[in-house]
Amino acid sequence: MRRLPDTIGRERSWKLVSTATGLLGTLVAKRHLRAAYSAVRKDTPSSAFDPTKARFSWPGALLWAVAAGIGLVMAKMVGDRVAAIGWELATGTAPPGIDEEPAGA
After folding, report:
1. What is the pLDDT of residues 2-45, one digit of tens each?
2. H/E element holding 61?
3. What count of other Cβ atoms lies within 10 Å of the Cβ of residue 18?
4. Which residues, 6+ apart, have CB-to-CB distance to 72 below 8 Å?
5. What is the DSSP letter of 40?
6. Counting beta carbons within 10 angstroms of the beta carbon of residue 79, is it exposed (0 to 12), middle (13 to 18) or buried (19 or more)?
7. Cα 37 to the chain's mean position, in Å?
8. Helices vs strands, H then E, count in the chain
9. Which of 60, 67, 75, 93 has its CA 20 to 30 A from that of 10?
């Protein structure tokens, strides 16, 4: 029964670490997506996605929505992996709820 508080503490700590890295990854991804948009379109990102603006186009909005979705998923994957590596380096154990699998499986 003494291990229960330690387990709850590990789970809460892991949630805090993974949430913080996810937030940081999202902010970095947002900055990179805006920079990519500005480099390609030579315009501010907000002006192209406002349906009331004359420059709005559905194909352009759809293209950038797909690009943003891919970018944010990649940011989440990288953030989760960085959080897990940091946790393993700091504690010497796998994060709570993560099962160890052999490298070749």
Report:
1. 454 566 688 888 888 888 988 888 888 888 888 887 787 776 66
2. helix 58-91
3. 19
4. 26, 29
5. H
6. buried
7. 19
8. 3, 0
9. 75
